Structures
1.
Amino acid sequence: MYPFAGRDAIISQIPRLKKKYTRYTPYASATIQDIFSKEELNKSTYLYAYTFENTIFKNDNKHLTAISIPYKVQLSPVYDFIVSDFNGDGKKDILMAGNYSYSDTETGEMDAGNGSLLLQQADGSFAFVENRDHGFWAQREVRELKSIQLANGREAIITGNNRGPIEISTCLKAIHHEPNVGVSH
């Protein structure tokens, strides 16, 4: 098994390894067993992740049920969301946004999100609505979403961005829901 972290990243966390791996080439071919002693590995705490997907958890009488959400929402991390009935069908829909641009070389940027609207279906699942159909765009590093009502009565979404300006979106279009068909105008 080989380490995920590059030499510089692991040395920043475990400085003593700088003496052992003075050059990149030996580290590049080193296994976990080469880097750490058997004793260190035996004393280590092992944590396991079984999924990295954005997931909705529904509370059913104090039992959480995982609900998978569409693939297009998996293109970037989600940092905030608003639950509301965006299409007027009486079901709770979800508007969400995120992105992360200041990552390590090993992980790369996670900034493919534009903001996502998910409409709840009759069976409790969620359908993704294309941004061009609902008009909400959140392409920066979103950290907070708030729904407000403007003086003219229209709803607006305020987007708080990391290392960027606060934005306001008033163009969330009315979405009409047709059972078993998806989203249409």
2.
Amino acid sequence: MSKTKIQIKTLLGKLLFEHECESLRECVVQAVAKKKDLTGAYLTGAYLTGADLRGAYLTGAYLRGADLTGADLTGAYLRGEKIYLPPITVSGLPFWDVMIFGTHIKIGCETHSIADWEKFKTSRISLMDSNAANWWKIHKALIIPMAEHHQKLHLAAKKKAEKDEAKTVEAT
């Protein structure tokens, strides 16, 4: 495969990063390795399976349809939240894939806190899509416990990382 100049831009066309590479996946990995801020990057549909995205700044990035299966997002920022554990991705469900990260759940293009997903009434879920209320009724019992468990592990990892960081600061 030949290399070409690939650009990562925001939805409004602001250039965030460009690199001579073979794929958008490679370009994203290079941007992350060079610690480039990809806040607001338009990465819809990007194939990022297995990509090393540790420490990436992806707050506000458009990731709809992006394949993040196996991507290492540890330390990345999603929705303004630092990720301390790799997200859980649930795929193969009808209509939408699910990503659980930190204190949030992303279902299709809808990202909300776990607490909000738990509290949403059927009328609110129905506004998301004509199939959403029935889908949520079927899958909520699977998704919420998984998300709560992941959140518990995330918060413990966050606490440990903050404690380790405080020790490092004290030592300097």
3.
Amino acid sequence: MQVFIEECKEKHINFVKHKYRIPDYACDTNMETLGINLVDWIGYADDIVLCFETRDLLQKAVDVLSDTFKRFNLNINVGKTKTMIINNNDALNEYPTSICSLEDKRIDNVKVFRYLGGNIKYNEQNTGDEEVELRLESGEAKFYALSKKFFNHKIPLRTRAQILNTLIRSRLTYACQCWSITEKQKQLLCSKYNLIMLRKMMKGGFHRKDNSMSFKYTNADILRLCKSESLDKFIEKQQKKYLAHLIRMGNTSTSKKLLFDDTPSRNPGPEITLFSSVLKSENISAKDFAKKALAKNF
């Protein structure tokens, strides 16, 4: 990829840049760090992600990438290559089906793309409903596939709950460390785990109190008997640990620079970020959280 990057520089193909400002309280040096971070490419195994501001730059970069690969006897699979216009809010014009091509073959411009197991939708800025629905469907499908074990009352309830957390909760909360979700989305996940799955596993879990519509066992009772914790608390714990890990990273880390992104938002209203979500759940200031993170108290 270094050859590709150098070729792009020679042809004045500019990659996406973003401003960042890391406050002094989040640095070991106690000095504020700011600058511009270049996101030239993102790679994982044999997957490559390229980001550009315009169609013209994207088309030029795809051509350069293809030529670079051919020099090493490699070819790009057009059928497996997709593009997406991120945070597209243009309601006046129809979303284009293709915005670039490779060797006269059109590359599909998709609305939803699954990357590293998660769904990304073109017009959902944060962790969108598309990803939450995928988590719910994935967890529910596996839950009923293993229902004979989960509904077998010969197996102790707490043992079944441990199996549930290992095989199902991991699907419901996959990559939750970096989520930016709303309270409504979080409650959807919690109701699936707390109200439906755990309650179905309990004998008499849906029994009502006499002359009342209230359940005999409250959600707190269910969690106590299963020796488990609420899904929202589990998500908050994972996010807190991950955020503290990012803050402890060096200031040259791309992940830390993205965490402290200082680029003005193009969308109106307050933003939901990983940082703001954790601070709200912990009821703590950013400075105090960073202090505890650097001291490894999280």
4.
Amino acid sequence: MILYVLPPNGSFSLLSVSGDTPGEAGNALGNEALHVSQVLLNHCSDTIAKGLVYGTNPAVGSKVTAQSTVKLILSSGGCPTTVPRVINRLVGTAQTLLKNAGFVVAETPAPASMCTSSKLNAVVSQSVGPGLSAPYGQTIFVQYCTSVGSTGASGVTGVTGATGSTTTTTTTTTLAGTTGVTGATG
């Protein structure tokens, strides 16, 4: 422990209590012979969790004297961030765009009725609309196509033939569990 002896009305630098709970900050500042104001201000922060101390007024490093009053500024959580448009983007691209904007991403498969073959692995809905604001760190839910609905190619088996041919060709294509067979009849 370091003990400083100050002359009467001597000043010292205000210590940082950023990231502390209000109780921890009050104890630390009280140990410095400072008073904590009951007025708590709020400020958004992308790095300090909601309810923890973001800063003080006067600011850290400011010269204060014993018995000075310090106001705590608490974090109100993540700052508002604009949500990017990810609809019609491949799910991997959508994840990258949302994560780079500071959001957490949760993906779920979309109902097949929302999907066509051109939308496989593409996002078809997002929980917060593009261009709207959401707090930094919020979870954005996206739905993407993993199978094709009745308007697409799912569940379709096709058999085509060419008359007069003696060769038979079989082709198996996997598209969301779909098998197509083409053949020639003689």
